[in-house]
Amino acid sequence: MTIPSPFMTPERAGFRDNLDRFFADRVRPNIETWEAAGRVPQHIHEDLGALGVFGFGVPEAYGGLGFDDPFLRCDYAERAFGCGASGVAAAVGGRVISIGPMVQFAPEPFKRLILPEIVAGRIGSALAITEPGGGSDVAALSTRADRRGDGWVLNGCKTFITGGMEADWFVVGARTGKPGLAGISLFLVPAGVPGFSRSSIGDKMGWLCSDQATLYFEDCTLPEDALIGPENKGFLAIMGNFNYERLSMTAGCLGMMRLCYASALGWARERRTFGRRLIEHQAIAHKFAEISARIDLTEAYLERICWDISQGRMPVAEISKAKVQATKALEYVASEAMQIFGGAAYLRGNPVERVWREIKVMAIGGGSEEILRDLAVRQMGLAEA
Ligand SMILES: Cc1cc2nc3c(=O)[nH]c(=O)nc-3n(C[C@H](O)[C@H](O)[C@H](O)COP(=O)(O)OP(=O)(O)OC[C@H]3O[C@@H](n4cnc5c(N)ncnc54)[C@H](O)[C@@H]3O)c2cc1C
After folding, report:
1. pLDDT tens track for 68-89
2. 203 and 263 share one domain
3. Which of 13, 181, 192, 283 could be cross-linked to 139 through a Cys-Cys bond (beta carbons 3.0 to 4.6 Å apart)?
4. Which of 92, 138, 160 has the most ligand 1 atoms within 8 A of CB, as the residue to mutate?
5. What CATH number is given to the structural domain containing 222?
6. Are residues 62 and 82 in the same domain?
7. How many angstroms separate the alpha carbon of residue 76 from the centre of ligand 1?
8. Where is the Acyl-CoA oxidase/dehydrogenase middle domain (predicted)?
């Protein structure tokens, strides 16, 4: 957007510059290698940890920044998802989405000893909600945790768990009570517990340098304090945690759209057809007007939401609508950017080709478009009058 943002600060601009340098120098040149390996190297987790990106909302005593800032969270997500392969953001994303419940609910010794290691990127963590039976209907999850003696026994299966192949700790949603949303609790589960195993979900369309795992819990014995947060009230915690995940994914879409715009514009300025550069053909120039409008709208919506959060509110309806708007905008922008590239868009290695393969995970993961529209409508109370 050519209009300066009223929400930009020197601190934000500096943080964004740091991230830009990091992703340009340390990440972008290695993407092909990491995709072939199916993972990013361990030092990337630690380098990002050193930049502070896992420390938002984490007290300093637990290794965090000691403050939260929705704008900075989004600046990170925009840069990470837009770095050339949104799989890089996913590769460290299991950690990002599981830290919140740990800060809120984990026992004090865990927060003092283990959480700083996770926030620093030295050990991994993941959030395990989705099951083979379904991900949208969280209230129907069937993994069970039953009281036995002075602890718990966990049985069930989770799938699509990002970072699950390498994580050392999991935040797991499990049923402790009656059917429905009022019978779910959260558990902190170490990867080393007897009865735990995992396997990779296998070949995927995108996010190639990140892993997703199926997790199996067979009579895993857990201590009493593995239950984190109030018993049978885990559903609310899961829903609360989704807000930042969805906000980050919206910012991620913004970064991916910016990547499409910049790549397609570079091409349109060089490629010549019918004696002129592509950008000089009106039909192509108009595509950039449309693309940049979609980007501007997403940015403006996101910043308004960040401002609202910074005022102490959590605008769930707007977060839900913004994520849907952003994934739809991303689909449009990536399609038009590919059209501008012509046949070159169809080749592996073209940055927009990779974005194209990573649209759907943004539209399905972290709350699908259908589920989020539904949530927005309920939050707005449209059926109540
Ligand atoms: C690459 C990747 C990474 C992921 N990482 C994680 C992770 O780290 N942790 C985790 O817990 N999960 C993770 N997920 C799972 C993700 O959150 C789920 O895929 C998502 O919530 C949708 O669940 P589902 O795939 O089971 O689809 P389903 O719930 O089976 O839904 C199928 C389709 O039906 C639609 N639908 C469902 N119910 C309704 C309805 N009532 N009305 C209208 N439409 C409906 C959905 O929108 C969807 O389009 C990941 C998924 C992917 C693909």
Report:
1. 999 999 999 999 999 999 999 9
2. no
3. 181
4. 160
5. 2.40.110.10
6. yes
7. 24
8. 126-220
Measure the CA–CA gap between 327 and 29, rounded to whole angstroms: 27
- Asked, for residue 349, whether it belongs to a domain, the answer is yes
Ligand 1: centre distance to CA 136 (Å):
5
Q: Give 367 Cα–ligand 1 centroid separation in angstroms.
A: 6
Residue 385, pLDDT > 80, answer no
Comparing CA positions, the residue from 294, 207, 292, 306 lying closest to residue 247 is 306
Tokens standing for residue 350? 């073209």
Residues 113 and 16 placed together within one structural domain of the fold: yes
- Unique residue bearing structure tokens 């300093």: 60
Q: How far apart are CA 360 and CA 330, in angstroms?
A: 10
Q: pLDDT confidence of 186, banded at 50, 70, 90?
A: very high
Both 58 and 27 in one domain: the answer is yes
Q: Give the pLDDT score at 25.
A: 98
Q: At what angle do helices 369-380 and 316-341 cross, to 10 degrees?
A: 150
* CA 155 vs CA 102, 196, 222, 378: distances in Å: 21, 9, 11, 33
Looking at the domain assignment, is residue 385 inside a domain? no
Same domain, 52 and 80: yes
Residues 6 or more apart whose Cβ sits within 8 Å of residue 17? none
Beta bridge partners of 198: 215
For residue 133, give the ligand 1 atom closest to its CA. 26
